[in-house]
Design brief:
By secondary structure, this protein is mainly alpha-helical. Helix content is 74%, strand content 4%. Strands 1-2 form a two-stranded antiparallel sheet.
């Protein structure tokens, strides 16, 4: 029963991570369009698109946190595994336990970020705080805070699922010239 619940939760978390990643990709596409329109407007009309700087700031943060959970899901989060990879051949059990500990610590840190950011989102929602230049171009803060809170909460959940299912087993990538049979 517990295995089925964990498997179901894992499927939902994975689907949410993939969806958030796709949304992040759409934000990248929107950012490319905005930057191209700004370049064309500057070059052809000598009139830059207002708010480009603010939209780029807004977009970069959203892209990172929309894609964070999927990066964790597919084990592509930047970290140094050199020591663990060396240790794996001599002590695979110890290596697996160390990976679980690292994932547990990561889950805690992501949960703490979500815990701190969610009240900030609620505050920004209530006060309608914005960033930008008043009278020229402004954007509300709350969407950024919501994406940070949700992205880190989902990443924390995925790290936690990796801890309880012990599914974090990255494979070493070897270049063909380092294979034993290569000349």
């Amino acid at each position: 029963m517990l295995k089925h619940a964990v498997a179901g939760l894992s499927r939902v978390a994975n689907a949410l991570a993939i969806t958030a990643n796709a949304l992040g990709t759409l934000v990248v596409l929107a950012l490319v369009i905005i930057l191209n329109v700004d370049v064309i407007a500057r070059g052809v009309f000598s009139a830059p698109l207002r708010g480009t700087y603010e939209m780029v700031q807004f977009s970069v943060v959203m892209i990172v946190f929309l894609q964070l959970a999927d990066v964790v899901r597919v084990d592509r989060l930047t970290r140094s595994d050199g020591f663990l990879n060396l240790l794996h051949h001599r002590r695979p059990g110890l290596t697996a336990n160390l990976r679980r500990i690292i994932n547990a610590i990561s889950a805690i840190f992501m949960a703490l970020i979500a815990y701190v950011t969610f009240p900030e989102f609620l505050h920004m929602w209530d006060t309608q705080d914005y960033f930008g230049v008043p009278g020229l171009f402004t954007l509300p803060w709350w969407p950024v805070k919501l994406v940070i809170a949700c992205g880190t909460a989902l990443a924390s959940l995925i790290f936690f699922l990796k801890v309880i299912t012990a599914q974090d087993r990255p494979q070493l990538i070897r270049a063909p010239e380092h294979d034993e049979g290569a000349p």
